[in-house]
């Protein structure tokens, strides 16, 4: 999978990666059409409204200025004709005054319209932005859910996901900016048409004077992006430190180890280095920006001088002078904001790269186009044929040469020391990963030929690092089969099988009691109590194969006995794989696989393995001795 890598770093000191080339920055503009398309999909109706209203709004400035020019010319005309002596109450009878009043009323109307349109447009923009942010967040969640487990264990992907997440919040302003740009463009054209009639070459002067400011903005935007991009891992670490330092889950350990100082210092150090990198750019940007803007101002005043000069020489009227000078001032600000805005849009388009490139990551573990129907019931069972697997980016085989059969209806236990490969085997069995070597067959056909969803529905796994959901107790069990969330009888039955019903019976709110301390009404459970809830999830499924990875590690001896008693009853017609370090659990299995260093060392029943006298017998003796 082509994962983007961040630029080279040395010893925690960060130089921004060289800003992308001008061409690359222009190429990033290709992200705009899909961006606009996704905004359009958010709400076509609002899009049409904002475009139409902005178009109207764009034509107002030039109209207002032109009416202003007419007013001044009319006033000058009245002054010259001595008509001011006319009785103002008799204005109805005077065509000249009537004309002036009309012009004044028109300008007033335009001013009110401009204000109203501006407000409506910004309201629509903020609605559209929020809708866009919501729908993109949903898309992000959905896409993230479709990715492989492998992707989530990849730091590069985490960086990309983080940048994509930040884009969602930041990019909504891009919409306002883009539309504002289009609006400014229309206004500029309307001004330019007006000015062209009077002094076409003045526009050229203005444009040339603005080029340095534009290039400067372009450059510094790209630098900001480079810094932001490069510091993603550090910003993620900042978030992580913040959570570590101030969350219910970590508070216990952080307090008892006195880690607060350490976390705060680490946070401060990191955040300051990001601050320095940003400050350097901000300072240089302000310095150069000031210089470039001055060049633009010089261009503007040069044009102003020329216009004044020509008015004095009678080539322009006073109305023309006010119209031209105001048009010029507006044109200059507009052009400046258009050009810098363009470079900002180009900068933001670079950020869109992050969002879109995240959407382009494709999962590799997929269902086949023509999946084989999942066997109901499983007949032959699962067969591992010389299966080997290496974690992505690791040289070492986590498991290798795995050869065994998990028969239908069999309870298999996996034992072995830490890191022996037990969990990895289970991940392969539930197709969270595909083997790098060998194959896994289900009833004679490779696992990959079955529909992934059917496989996951038929294989229920509870991992040792199961999730403690801060939902109510019923939902905590229902997550095992979320479609059956409303089926209280099923949830209660699952709770009964895993002995979780006793735990829930003691909760003040029963099944409706929220668990965990994250929310105000939550009640926390002990480790073993949480585990009983988690085991109940396995019983929520109609799984033909149940996998429990150290399911009873946190249970007391009596609870463990009970859980397994009920488990045996249930697993009569099902297969099960149980990983455990406790021999009291392991010995209940039909067969036991002893793993060591990623390989299978021995397979047999408890009695067979004990009498064979290998590692199993040794470990069993060791644990038994502990109880004597
Ligand atoms: N996500 C991962 N990425 C890289 N290596 C991993 C990953 N998960 C496990 N490993 C490595 O693979 C090997 C097998 O790990 P596995 O989790 O299967 O062991 P285990 O037998 O379940 O151990 P334990 O009893 O401690 O749970 C170990 O050496 C471990 O370091």
UniProtKB/TrEMBL annotation:
The ABC transporter domain, residue ranges: 382-622
Keywords assigned by UniProt, alphabetized: ATP-binding, Cell membrane, Membrane, Nucleotide-binding, Transmembrane, Transmembrane helix, Transport
PANTHER family according to UniProt: ATP-BINDING CASSETTE SUB-FAMILY B MEMBER 10, MITOCHONDRIAL (PTHR43394:SF1), ATP-DEPENDENT PERMEASE MDL1, MITOCHONDRIAL (PTHR43394)
Bilayer topology: Multi-pass membrane protein
Cellular localization per UniProt: Cell membrane
Keyword Cell membrane recorded: yes
PROSITE patterns: ABC_TM1F, ABC_TRANSPORTER_1, ABC_TRANSPORTER_2
SMART domains the record matches: AAA
Main location: membrane
InterPro entries membership: AAA+_ATPase (IPR003593), ABC1_TM_dom (IPR011527), ABC1_TM_sf (IPR036640), ABC_transporter-like_ATP-bd (IPR003439), ABC_transporter-like_CS (IPR017871), P-loop_NTPase (IPR027417), Type_1_exporter (IPR039421)
Short name of any one Pfam family annotated for the protein: ABC_tran
The name this protein goes by in its record: ATP-binding cassette, subfamily B
Residue ranges of every copy of the ABC transmembrane type-1 domain listed in the record: 51-347
CC terms in the record's Gene Ontology section: plasma membrane
Top-rank lineage group of the source organism: Bacteria
Transmembrane regions: 188-215
């Amino acid at each position: 999978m082509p994962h983007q890598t961040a630029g080279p770093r040395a010893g925690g000191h960060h130089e921004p990666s060289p800003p992308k080339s001008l061409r690359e920055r222009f190429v990033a503009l290709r992200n705009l059409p899909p961006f606009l398309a996704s905004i359009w999909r958010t709400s076509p109706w609002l899009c049409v409204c904002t475009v139409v209203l902005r178009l109207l709004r764009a034509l107002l400035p030039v109209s207002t200025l032109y009416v202003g020019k007419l007013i001044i010319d009319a006033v000058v005309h009245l002054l010259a004709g001595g008509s001011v002596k006319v009785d103002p109450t008799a204005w109805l009878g005077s065509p000249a005054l009537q004309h002036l009043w009309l012009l004044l009323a028109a300008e007033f109307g335009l001013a009110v319209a401009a204000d109203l349109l501006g407000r409506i447009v910004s309201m629509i923009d903020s609605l559209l932005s929020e809708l866009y942010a919501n729908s993109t967040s949903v898309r992000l969640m959905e896409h993230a859910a479709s990715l492989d487990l492998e992707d989530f264990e990849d730091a590069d992907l985490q960086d990309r996901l983080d940048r994509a997440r930040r884009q969602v919040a930041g990019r909504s302003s891009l919409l306002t900016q883009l539309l504002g740009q289009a609006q400014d463009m229309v206004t500029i054209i309307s001004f330019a048409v007006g000015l062209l009639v009077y002094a076409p070459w003045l526009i050229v002067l203005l444009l040339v004077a603005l080029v340095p400011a534009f290039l400067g903005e372009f450059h510094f935007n790209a630098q900001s992006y480079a810094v932001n991009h490069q510091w993603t891992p550090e910003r993620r670490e900042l978030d992580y430190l913040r959570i570590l330092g101030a969350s219910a889950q970590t508070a216990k350990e952080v307090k008892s180890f006195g880690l607060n100082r350490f976390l705060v210092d680490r946070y401060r150090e990191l955040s300051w280095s990001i601050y320095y990198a940003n400050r350097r750019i901000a300072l240089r940007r302000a310095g150069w920006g000031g210089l470039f803007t001055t060049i633009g101002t010089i261009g503007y005043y040069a044009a102003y001088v020329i216009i004044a000069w020509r008015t004095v020489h009678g080539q322009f009227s006073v109305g023309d002078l006010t119209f031209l000078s105001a048009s010029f001032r507006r044109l200059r600000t507009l052009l400046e904001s258009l050009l810098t805005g363009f470079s900002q849009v180009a900068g933001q388009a670079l950020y869109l790269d992050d969002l879109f490139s995240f959407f382009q990551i494709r999962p590799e573990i997929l269902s086949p186009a023509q999946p084989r129907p999942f066997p109901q019931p499983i007949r032959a069972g699962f067969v591992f044929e010389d299966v080997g697997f290496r974690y992505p980016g690791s040289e070492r085989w986590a498991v290798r040469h795995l050869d065994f059969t998990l028969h239908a209806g069999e309870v298999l236990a996996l034992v072995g020391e830490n890191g022996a490969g037990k969990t990895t085997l289970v991940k392969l069995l539930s197709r969270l990963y595909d083997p790098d070597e060998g194959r896994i067959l289900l009833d004679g056909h490779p696992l990959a030929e079955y529909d992934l969803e059917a496989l996951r529905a038929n294989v229920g796994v509870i991992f040792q690092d199961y999730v403690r959901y801060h939902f109510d107790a019923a939902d905590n069990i229902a997550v095992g089969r979320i479609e059956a969330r409303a089926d209280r009888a099923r949830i209660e039955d699952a709770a009964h099988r895993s002995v979780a019903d006793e735990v829930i019976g003691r909760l003040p709110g029963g099944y409706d009691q929220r668990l965990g301390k994250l929310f105000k009404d939550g009640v926390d459970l002990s480790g073993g109590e949480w585990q009983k809830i988690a085991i109940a999830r396995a019983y929520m499924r109609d799984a033909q194969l149940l996998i429990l990875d150290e399911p009873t590690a946190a249970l007391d001896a009596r609870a463990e006995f009970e859980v397994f008693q009920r488990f045996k009853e249930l697993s009569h017609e099902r297969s099960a794989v149980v990983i455990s370090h406790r021999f009291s659990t392991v010995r209940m299995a039909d067969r036991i696989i002893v793993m060591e260093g990623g390989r299978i060392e021995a397979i047999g029943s408890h009695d067979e393995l004990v009498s064979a006298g290998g590692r199993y017998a040794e470990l069993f003796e060791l644990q038994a001795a502990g109880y004597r």
